[in-house]
Amino acid sequence: MMRRRSTRLHLASWTLLLGVIASGAASADEVPRGEVQKHEFAASSIFPGTTRDYWIYIPKQYDPSKPACLFVCQDGLQYDAPAVFDDLIAKGEIPVLIGVFVMHGRVKAPSDGALDRFNRSLEYDGLGDAYARFLTDELLPDVEKRQAADGRPIRLSKDGNDRAIGGSSSGAVCAFTAAWERPESFRRVFSAIGTYVGLRGGNDYPTLIRKYEPKPLRVFLEDGSNDLNIYGGDWWMANQEMERALTYAGYEVAHVWGDGGHSSKHATEIFPEAMRWLWKGWPAAVQAGSRSDKLQEVVIGGEGWTVAAEGVDAASIAVDPSGDVYVSDAAASRISRIGADGRVEPVADRPEAIVDALAGRITRNDGARFQLLPSADESPTGGRRIEARTPEGAAVISNTGIAGAESLVLSPDESLLYIADATSRWVYSFQVQPDLSLQFGQKYYHLHLPDDARDAGTSGLCVDRDGRLYAATTLGVQVCDQAGRVNVVIPTPGGAADAVTFGGPDFDVLYATSGNVVYKRRVKPHGVHGFTPPHKPVAPRL
Fold first, then answer.
1. 3-state secondary structure labels for all residues of 104-140
2. Using CB atoms within 10 A as the burial measure, which of 60, 285, 304, 457 is most buried?
3. Which residues contact 540 (CB under 8 A, 6 or more apart)?
4. What digits encode the pLDDT tens for the residues 60-114?
5. What does the alpha-carbon distance between residue 191 and residue 9 come to, in Å, rounded to a whole number?
């Protein structure tokens, strides 16, 4: 009944199926019963001052000589999970797993005359990796300090393929966020009546899912048509948006829709089958899908990021006409060359064209040059200025009006100059006039931001022959169409991207730096650079 990618199941079918499950279940006396322990955790530095209860389910079959699989559940014990796990483990339908059921934190009031500070919405509804780090770095290590009543020590697998996470309402979006941020730690998600609405950013997920290069996640969604419709949004519509976005992007996703309200009643009924589906095929790894049409225009199947160089200064990146790539520190004082053959070697002779490119200066095919003047040389209006020089050496100064102007790149036809604003989400577009002055500047490219940031962290730009703009940002490489819209987000293995360019003999290898590591991957588009002749792309769809 469950099938790969998207599954539509009717409530009547589930009612029948649950009846079959119940009639075929082993009696309570035949099923080995696990134990449930209760503990308190009050030592978080990520959520300082909080205290919370948590429960550990340890199955009878657990053997500490082998790290156990894991299920983490928000809001404490739910879904009659210990009894369900007893039954499914006994039948061999899910692996032997340890359950951790954790409450949200609270900061206890200093007196009876004051309220506790409740952390549920902060921890659960917000985006970002804080809660995932809380689990992996703080709570789960505390769990592993415990032992079963018979003395068995608790050992948890660190492999995300061996870990599931789930919850209801805000606990559901929390579970999804933890897996989204840390797929190396959690790859199987159970989401019931999920709060993918405008409380603390969960409403962004249907858009982000469609744009991000897919992650290796398997997601089970549950909701009812009478779920909440309040100030934050419409839960029923939002969960359907999630299912459609996950399907569009090529994720393994199943869903069960009912007609219930905002409660866990329906989720409890379908929990056994949801667990069967989430763990099906284990230990085979959950794979990342890839169906987005915009992503397919850029990436090549099976061609992911690989390390081109590591342990090098890589604040800036440049390329020469042969396709060799150069990286350096911010001052371009220490330069390394990454050849098309993959060899990495220091550069001692410091060629002028490469030093200029590493410093962010653009030299056009006809010899015209563009550079940002130093920040101290801002205009009276507060923006950094651009100096252009004609092939004959005459200088033309233009005020950008952008105080945080950083990276520059020309459009493929060289009629536009794009300037990244390091203090916002915007990349500006200016038209280059015949005298090289800049006119008609606009906030043109609208980039995505991390949840806790005021800017995209844009620190590098490049373009391809089709007119796409590639921006190195905190979220990775954001790929925009000519109309200024982000189509694709490609995180690097290091997460953020510091600089980006096209290299290789055919300029079809995308290079991105992250810290002192340079990554590369072959892609479908071909990059263009200032030294190549102008190329007019096909007009975009508007």
1. CCEECCCCCCCCCEECHHHHHHCCCCHHHHHHHHHHH
2. 457
3. 467, 481, 482, 483
4. 999 999 999 999 999 999 999 999 999 999 999 999 999 999 999 999 999 999 9
5. 16
pLDDT digits (tens, 9 = 90+) for 189-200: 999 999 999 999
Q: Kindly list the distances between the CA atom of residue 260 and the CA atoms of 199, 336, 458, in Å, as whole numbers in the listed order.
A: 22, 61, 45
Beta bridge partners, 134, equal none
One-letter identity of residue 508: D
Residue ranges and CATH numbers for the domains of the chain are 8-291 (3.40.50.1820), 295-528 (2.120.10.30)
Alpha-carbon span 448 to 426, nearest angstrom: 9
Q: What is the pLDDT of residue 28?
A: 58
Angstrom distance (rounded) from CA 350 to CA 359: 12
pTM of the model: 0.92
Mean pLDDT, rounded, of the chain: 93
267 contacts 192 by C-beta, under 8 angstroms? yes
Q: What share of the chain is helix, strand, coil (3-state, %, to 5)?
A: 20, 35, 45
Cβ–Cβ < 8 Å for 210, 250? no
Q: Do residues 456 and 471 touch, judged by C-beta distance below 8 A?
A: yes
How many CA atoms within 13 Å lie on the side-chain side of 116?
A: 12
pLDDT interval class at 511 (50, 70, 90): very high
